[in-house]
Amino acid sequence: MKASVVESGEISKGASPRKGLIRGLSIVDFILRIVAATSTLGSALSMGTTRETLPFTTQFVKFRAVFKDLPTFVYFVTSNSIVCVYLVLSLALSFFHIVRNKAVKSRVLLVFLDSVMFGLLTTGASAAAAIVYIAHYGNSSANWFPFCRQYNNFCERISGSLIGSFIAVVIFIILILMSAISISKH
Amino acid sequence: MKASVVESGEISKGASPRKGLIRGLSIVDFILRIVAATSTLGSALSMGTTRETLPFTTQFVKFRAVFKDLPTFVYFVTSNSIVCVYLVLSLALSFFHIVRNKAVKSRVLLVFLDSVMFGLLTTGASAAAAIVYIAHYGNSSANWFPFCRQYNNFCERISGSLIGSFIAVVIFIILILMSAISISKH
Fold first, then answer.
1. Dist CA A84 CA A86 (whole Å)
2. Among all residues of chain A, which has the CA nearest to that of B65?
3. For position B90, what pLDDT does the model report?
4. How many domains does chain A have?
5. Which segments constitute the Casparian strip membrane protein domain (chains A, B) (predicted)?
6. Does the interface ipTM go beyond 0.90?
């Protein structure tokens, strides 16, 4: 990528490698956004489609688990969906940055939006993680029973769905750092 | 970079208001860090010192609640403490930015560290919030009982301690935005 920019040549000597760096960062930014969007979509779908019905039932207890039983999981699916849509939309701006190296204000805007979405995603992921922890290990002080002992598949799926979300969280930190570097090179 | 070249030529007309803006942002940055450090310290102390013993007891059930009963609250206190220490240490860098307007690399470093600490704090705060929610409302599907019905004071304190943490979360978003603006003005 650096090479292509250098070949397009243009003017001053100092500016070209810097331009190449900025364009390179923009391209990586674009790719990482696609990865993060896929991760959050995967997380939202994985959590949203999880349900387990145990093969036995009694008169008093229902043996069926869906993510809607816990408001935190609903929030998790919502936040992942919102962030996924945002990431897809932000691809337009990211592509614009690849084409127009000089744009600075839009990069600052992107840092701001990224950090808001980063916050939203992190709240969803860690709230869900806290509940998954209780689901696995329970809490004897609060007399909360670990329902994972019964709902094995359900628990595996919801634990797995956290992974995509936390991958996206890490990507957001990288995106913010890269944006800051790009802005500093102008 | 462009600006620094102009600034090294001392006076020039365009640079002065920009310098003023950057310095202004640096000062606000310094103040906000103090506020955020105080908030996280307050949250950590408030959560860490909360305990309630009910004025009656039976043979089988212990009626005493401390934050250590729930690992999520221990994580909350830990993350808030780490972020508080970080914020106090970052004051040095923030002060350096007030004195030296031109510094860019250290600002990029600060954006990176800020976003990592933002992530850490948000995980702690939202995980604790998820547990506090269960403590207040319980969950009938999982048969988790809302212990706030007994431990009123304990619950009020832990709910209140979340506030400081979320104030710091919002401040972090502002800090990252302001750093991005400062960097873009160089």
1. 5
2. A141
3. 97
4. 1
5. 24-170
6. no
